[in-house]
Amino acid sequence: MKRKELKIFTNMSFFIAITAIIVIPLSIYTSLPREFGSLAFILTLVGIPFSIISMFSKEKLLKRIFVLIVNLMPIGLFSYAIIMDFMDEFFRSAP
Predict the structure, then answer these.
(1) What is the pLDDT along the chain (95 residues), one digit of tens a residue?
(2) 3 with 56: CB under 8 angstroms?
(3) Predicted TM-score (pTM) of this structure
């Protein structure tokens, strides 16, 4: 694939990132159903490979980095929570 044709992946991952930025906080803080937040989280998992592929395009570098960071953020926060729960469970002093 030519580098100019990779702009499609950048645009798709950009729209996924914008959707995640809007929908995930709204589903947490408002009466928006939680399924929309879950769907946005799953879309960011789909957006990660698109973001990595888009790093080879000729799109603006700032846009490509923004998309990669935003698409990695939900899975990064989830991993952080799992690691902190593990550390809290096993490294806490005994009662």
Answers:
(1) 777 788 999 999 999 999 999 999 999 899 888 899 999 999 999 999 999 999 999 899 999 999 999 999 999 999 999 999 999 999 988 77
(2) yes
(3) 0.85
Burial class of residue 70 (count of CB atoms within 10 Å of its CB; 0-12, 13-18, 19+): buried
Residues in the chain: 95
The secondary structure of residue 7, as a DSSP letter, is H
Q: What angle do CA 42, 37, 60 make, to 5 degrees?
A: 65
Residue closest to 16 by CA, chosen among 78, 61, 67: 67
Alpha carbon distance 24, 32 (integer Å)? 10
